[in-house]
Amino acid sequence: MKHLRTTLGPKSKSELGMILPHEHVFVDLRTPDQPGYAEANTEDVVRLMAPEIERIKKLGVTALVECSTGGVGRRADIDLAVSLATDFPIVVPTGNYREPWIPEWVRHASEQELEAWMLRELTEQIDETGFQAGWIKLSAGDDGMTALETKILRAAARAAAQTDAVIGSHTIKGRVVMDQLDVIEAEGYRADRFISIHTQEEKDFAHNVAVAERGAWIEYDHVGRGEDKEVAELVIKALEAGCGDRLLLSHDRGWFDPALPMGGTPKPYTHLSTVLLPELKRRGIDDGTLIRLTHDNPFEAFAR
Question: Is there a binding annotation on residue 22?
Answer without folding.
Answer: yes
